[in-house]
Amino acid sequence: MKKRTVLLSALTLTAGLASAALVQNTYKKGLKIAMLPKIINIPYFTTTDNGGLEAIKELGGIGKAVGPSDGGASSQVSYINTLIAQRQDAIVLAANDANALVPSLKRAMAQGIKVVTFDSDVAVEGRQIFINQAKSDGIAKGQIELLSKLMGGKGEFAILSATPNATNQNTWIKIMQDELKKPAYKDMKLVKIAYGNDDDQKSFTEMQGLLQAYPNLKGVISPTTVGVAAAARYLSTSPKKGQVMLTGLGTPNQMRSFIKDGTVTAFQLWNPGDLGYLAAYAAAALASNQVTGKEGDTFTAGKLGKYTVGKNGEVVLGPPTTFDKANIDKFNF
Ligand code: RAM
């Protein structure tokens, strides 16, 4: 039995080395690839940056991560312009706005710089590939289903979002609103959409405002890692703890204590490190002329394996995970 295990791991190791060698052959060395998240200095994007930088290092490229400290619609424009001036081979960005960045991204592409969006997209003409963390439909419907379960299918609830212009949150909210028209959710009422701007203090204050303005509130969905952590911190010391069900998209490390103290029962997310890693590989595949971003293109993303480009240049990382008391300690990001 022991022998077999050793043999198996030796085989796995050989297979791993073989695919690593393949990667070296397929991708250009020395590519300059820049990660440009929505905002810097929040754990979620530090993790996506690190995933991207890990991939770039594996590929023998030159990676860097830059970005604004706020999520305003045009806060990334000057960064894009600088990256163009630096003649990066590719820009990998999570967009703060669907349209505001398109003119500068078009300028980048006209100069041969490849553009990959991840997490939050721009209009299709502003990039070659979009790495979606999961199917938007699955994320949005999953959030409503989870909250409905927590609220017993009944009552008023609010959404505490990121910035009002965030492409990803707005896509999810629209799908949530459509989903609420289903008979299964007829007793659930969305009373307010608030915006914490992916700012901890603003999100905290918005959560406080929601609980004060809607005394019958039974639930809150915060589909942002910053928002859900700040909302949980507020709720954890409020008399409403246990009465208002809070869920959303959070990182296990930021949410662990709120799961353990009973403020939050369950929430969801994907692996942000893998998201950044996959996005950087897609950028390298474009910059190495392995793919153009058209439907059906395939590329190998190191440890994550093979991915196929779908409609409108979209690549999907995989389904999100639901975290609760039973599994949260298995995750460290
Ligand atoms: C925040 C950002 C990001 C979003 C996650 C869930 O970190 O708004 O865009 O995908 O939350």
Automatic annotation (TrEMBL):
<feature type="signal peptide">
    <location>
        <begin position="1"/>
        <end position="20"/>
    </location>
</feature>
<protein>
    <submittedName>
        <fullName>Rhamnose ABC transporter substrate-binding protein</fullName>
    </submittedName>
</protein>
<dbReference type="InterPro" id="IPR013459">
    <property type="entry name" value="RhaS"/>
</dbReference>
<dbReference type="GO" id="GO:0030288">
    <property type="term" value="C:outer membrane-bounded periplasmic space"/>
</dbReference>
<dbReference type="Pfam" id="PF13407">
    <property type="entry name" value="Peripla_BP_4"/>
</dbReference>
<feature type="domain" description="Periplasmic binding protein">
    <location>
        <begin position="33"/>
        <end position="289"/>
    </location>
</feature>
<dbReference type="InterPro" id="IPR028082">
    <property type="entry name" value="Peripla_BP_I"/>
</dbReference>
<dbReference type="InterPro" id="IPR025997">
    <property type="entry name" value="SBP_2_dom"/>
</dbReference>
<dbReference type="InterPro" id="IPR050555">
    <property type="entry name" value="Bact_Solute-Bind_Prot2"/>
</dbReference>
<keyword id="KW-0732">Signal</keyword>
<dbReference type="GO" id="GO:0015762">
    <property type="term" value="P:rhamnose transmembrane transport"/>
</dbReference>
<dbReference type="GO" id="GO:0030246">
    <property type="term" value="F:carbohydrate binding"/>
</dbReference>
